[in-house]
Inverse folding.
């Protein structure tokens, strides 16, 4: 693994104070290299979203720190774009305008209006949503809304892309298509990605490494499993690959035997 680009150092998060305080995370240590795809998996409520939210700057670290490209994370910022499970598109704007809004905010003063318009369309093209650019969010499917959310995040050119169960609310086929799109895009752009998921197959298919969390309270990283397979991967071909099968078995064993909830 190369030099750490994103570094989570002795991170602890406690919500509340005094007798009602709840310590959710303790001693979380993780280094992510540039261009790496890392998934976080663990039982419901262990603190996966909390961990991602600290990296996003949405939840403050109680102790420890998150360092991205040599800078400590202290607040949300476009260099750490987040895609949530449920889309967060503005209903009164078209697909194109939703992405354009983020592009205008991030690149105002750095790109001309024409460049910003082209960049918006380029990112909609990356997620295959050009055909629906004039539709409102209410006029497109859940999978299409997630595609737009991904386009909006990519359009900010983040240093790290944070995905919080981005495919969690989708049917299996739509989910598979979107996973393939994310793999293709990441192969082309070499994004650094941190993704929270519940889905073992999704984690193994997409990740360079899978971070397995222990159960909360005071959850931490129990084990990190590398998946030694070139990306992007073909979901049919990998199903019979020994590295894939072993990684999958190791994650299932961790979750359902050693960390049964
Ligand atoms: N802002 C908050 N204030 C108080 N408690 C919180 C807050 N955010 C999360 N928690 C608590 O922290 C714990 C971890 O929540 P978190 O959402 O990070 O878990 P998760 O692993 O992502 O769960 P799931 O897989 O079900 O989405 C839970 O007990 C939750 O109730």
């Amino acid at each position: 693994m190369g030099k750490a680009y994103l570094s989570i150092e002795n991170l602890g998060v406690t919500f509340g104070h005094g007798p009602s305080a709840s310590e959710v995370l303790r001693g979380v240590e993780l280094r992510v290299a540039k261009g790496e795809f890392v998934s976080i998996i663990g039982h419901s409520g262990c603190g996966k979203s909390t961990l991602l939210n600290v990296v996003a700057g949405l939840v403050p670290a109680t102790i420890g720190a998150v360092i991205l490209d040599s800078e400590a994370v202290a607040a949300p910022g476009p260099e750490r774009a987040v895609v949530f499970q449920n889309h967060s598109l503005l209903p009164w704007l078209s697909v194109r305008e939703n992405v354009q809004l983020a592009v205008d905010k991030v690149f105002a003063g750095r790109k001309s209006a024409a460049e910003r318009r082209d960049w918006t369309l380029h990112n909609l093209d990356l997620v295959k949503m050009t055909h629906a650019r004039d539709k409102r969010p209410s006029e497109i499917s859940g999978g299409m809304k997630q595609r737009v959310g991904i386009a909006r995040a990519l359009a900010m050119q983040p240093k790290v892309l944070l995905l919080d169960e981005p495919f969690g609310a989708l049917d299996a086929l739509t989910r598979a298509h979107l996973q393939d799109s994310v793999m293709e895009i990441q192969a082309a752009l070499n994004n650094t990605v941190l993704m929270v998921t519940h889905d073992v197959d999704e984690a193994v298919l997409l990740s360079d490494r899978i971070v397995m969390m222990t159960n909360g309270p005071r959850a931490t990283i129990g084990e990190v499993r590398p998946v030694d397979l070139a990306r992007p991967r073909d979901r049919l071909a990998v199903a019979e690959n020994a590295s894939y099968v072993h990684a999958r078995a190791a994650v299932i064993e961790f979750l359902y035997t050693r960390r049964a909830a």
In short: Residues 94 and 136 are 4 Å apart (CA to CA).
